[in-house]
């Protein structure tokens, strides 16, 4: 019996054609992470950058985006390559056929934009294609022509919904917007404010990390202007953590696997939102809009031996991205040591939240650094009625350990009834560690490096047991000696002793 497959084959062909035309006709659902694989996910598996293999691996990792670079050959072919040269051949002055004589490290030929987009549309359930259009080295007009050709290819493949255009050339982005006012565009250079981007119809700020560190107000400005926030190229875990804490939409990285892990650990992924912070990414005295000083040498109720100074860079100074609180053997009034005690009192107060500090502690017998809180009503009701929360407390004679403690009218160190625990940490003097607390109306959890080591629960008795349902303020200080810190004396050979704080962050639910 003779079968005629022609009509069936035509139907299959039309179905496939229609599928490719409509697969992204509706707005896709993108991965909810911020991970953009820079030139694809290439590093972990030693794949060529900007290869189809690295693109597919980014899709397999479920990155929210995969970035790639477009250039145009002498015969006007759009190809994917970061550098202006390929195998020592200048791309803009070489025909595509000549370039294909050389292969990528994994055997792929240099992909065209059309081939790359088609590969990016296969089995892709959540990854944007983030296309950097490289300015032409021949002329400004040729750069505009490249942009126009890219838009035509994207439109022809019906890939608009998964496509993001980025460039260092502002005019390229403006031309793309003229061709398609709904195009998703992000600017790379970092010399335009978010207000300017918004005014010119550009959708996102995709700047180097240093731009945001220099202009932290641009983060809030971008959010107010409903601009996408992106930062490139972030391969450092600490920088990733800062961007995640600030709820960046995108983070471009050569280390997508690392960023995926940092995302899982970020407070933001657990429903916290950054409410207040100081990253100390400036030089000089602590930010006066965030910190004040408590000054004097009266012993602070603990027979401490230091004099706390005010606005003295010898004792408190931000430099190299950290706050340095420095205790010195330096006579001041009737005290033999100076140091600093910074407070948010009168600047910022907190009731509940997640509190986090990354710090390196001073070593040596006699030191007593702390990261702690007092109730703002301390002057009205006194201590310990006001309540005290010691998020991190360390004394130099008890090496490699910190305390997490609460004090109240019923539970305090004067009567020996304080509630606290000690935890061992490895190398707190030469390495940074994370010290934190999660506080709500039912409990206070103390954490070191993300691990819970002490929990204080609300007994629901009286304010004498639980004064922790009112505003508190933060304190950072380095005491010397005193009832606790000086239990075994003070080693004068350790000075100057430095308490180094990378950041303080406060999150709210």
Task: Considering the chains and any ligands shown, give keywords for the structure.
disordered N terminus, eight-stranded parallel β-barrel, alpha/beta, 13 helices, 28 strands, single chain, Jelly Rolls, 22% helix, ten-stranded mixed β-sheet, TIM Barrel, 509 residues
Layout of strands and helices, then pairs:
Blueprint: H1 6-22, E1 35-37, H2 52-60, E2 65-72, E3 78-80, E4 85-86, E5 89-90, H3 96-99, H4 113-121, E6 128-133, H5 140-156, E7 163-167, H6 170-179, E8 185-187, H7 194-199, E9 204-208, H8 209-214, H9 217-224, E10 228-232, H10 237-245, E11 250-253, H11 256-265, E12 273-278, E13 292-293, E14 306-308, E15 316-319, E16 322-332, E17 335-339, E18 341-343, E19 353-360, E20 367-375, H12 378-381, E21 388-393, E22 401-407, E23 419-424, E24 433-439, E25 443-448, E26 451-457, E27 472-480, H13 482-485, E28 497-508
Parallel strand pairs: 1-2, 1-11, 2-6, 6-7, 7-8, 8-9, 9-10, 10-11, 14-17
Antiparallel strand pairs: 2-3, 4-5, 12-28, 13-18, 15-16, 16-17, 16-28, 18-27, 19-24, 19-28, 20-21, 20-27, 21-22, 22-23, 24-25, 25-26
Helix pairs in contact: 5-6, 10-11
Give the structure's gist in a few sentences:
With 509 residues, the protein is α/β, with parallel strands linked by helices.
Overview of the molecule:
- With 509 residues, this protein is of the alpha/beta class.
- It folds into 2 domains: 21-269, Phosphatidylinositol (PI) phosphodiesterase (TIM Barrel, Alpha-Beta Barrel), CATH 3.20.20; 292-508, Jelly Rolls, CATH 2.60.120.200.
- Helix content is 22%, strand content 31%.
- Strands 12, 14, 15, 16, 17, 19, 24, 25, 26 and 28 form a 10-stranded mixed sheet that branches.
């Amino acid at each position: 019996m003779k079968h005629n497959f022609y009509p069936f084959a035509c139907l299959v062909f039309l179905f496939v054609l229609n599928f490719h035309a409509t697969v992204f006709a509706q707005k896709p659902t993108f991965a909810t992470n911020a991970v953009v694989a820079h030139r694809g996910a290439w590093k972990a598996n030693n794949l060529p950058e900007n290869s189809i293999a690295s693109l597919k691996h980014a899709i397999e990792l479920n990155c929210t985006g995969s970035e790639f670079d477009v250039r145009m050959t002498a015969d006007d072919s759009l190809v994917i390559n970061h550098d202006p040269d390929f195998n020592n051949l200048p791309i803009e002055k070489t025909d595509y056929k000549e370039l294909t004589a050389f292969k990528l490290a994994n055997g792929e030929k240099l992909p065209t934009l059309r081939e790359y987009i088609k590969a990016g549309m296969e089995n892709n359930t959540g990854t944007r294609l983030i296309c950097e259009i490289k300015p032409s080295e021949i002329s400004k007009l040729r750069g505009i022509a490249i942009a126009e050709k890219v838009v035509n290819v994207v439109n022809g493949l019906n890939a608009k919904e998964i496509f993001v255009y980025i460039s260092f050339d502002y005019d390229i982005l403006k031309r793309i917007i003229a061709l398609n006012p709904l195009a998703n565009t992000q600017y790379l250079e970092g010399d335009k404010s978010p207000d300017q981007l918004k005014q010119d119809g550009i959708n996102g700020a995709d700047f180097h990390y240093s731009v945001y560190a220099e202009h932290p107000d641009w983060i809030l400005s971008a959010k107010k202007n409903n601009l996408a926030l992106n930062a490139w190229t972030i391969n450092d875990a600490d920088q990733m953590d800062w961007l995640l804490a600030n709820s960046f939409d995108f983070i471009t990285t050569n280390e997508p696997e690392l960023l995926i892990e940092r995302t899982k650990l970020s407070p933001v992924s657990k429903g916290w939102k950054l409410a207040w912070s100081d990253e100390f990414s400036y030089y000089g005295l602590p930010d006066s809009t965030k910190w004040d000083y408590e000054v004097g040498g009266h012993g602070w109720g603990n027979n401490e031996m230091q004099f706390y100074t005010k606005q003295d860079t010898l004792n408190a100074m931000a430099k190299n991205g950290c706050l340095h609180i420095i205790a010195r053997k330096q006579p001041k009034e009737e005290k033999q040591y100076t140091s600093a005690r910074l407070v948010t009192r009168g600047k910022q107060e907190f009731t509940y939240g997640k509190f986090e500090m990354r710090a390196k502690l001073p070593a040596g017998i006699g030191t007593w650094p702390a990261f702690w809180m007092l109730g703002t009503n301390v002057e009205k009701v006194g201590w310990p009625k006001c309540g005290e929360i010691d998020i991190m407390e360390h004394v130099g004679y008890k090496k490699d350990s910190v305390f997490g403690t609460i004090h109240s009218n019923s539970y305090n160190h004067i009567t020996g009834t304080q509630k606290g625990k000690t935890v061992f940490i490895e190398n707190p003097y030469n390495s940074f560690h994370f010290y934190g607390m999660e506080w709500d109306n039912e409990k206070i959890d103390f954490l070191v490096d993300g691990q819970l080591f002490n929990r204080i629960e609300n007994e629901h008795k009286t304010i004498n047991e639980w004064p922790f349902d009112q505003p508190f303020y933060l304190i950072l200080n380095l005491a010397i000696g005193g009832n606790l810190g000086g239990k075994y004396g003070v080693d004068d050979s350790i000075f100057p002793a430095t308490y180094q704080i990378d950041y303080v962050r406060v999150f709210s639910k």
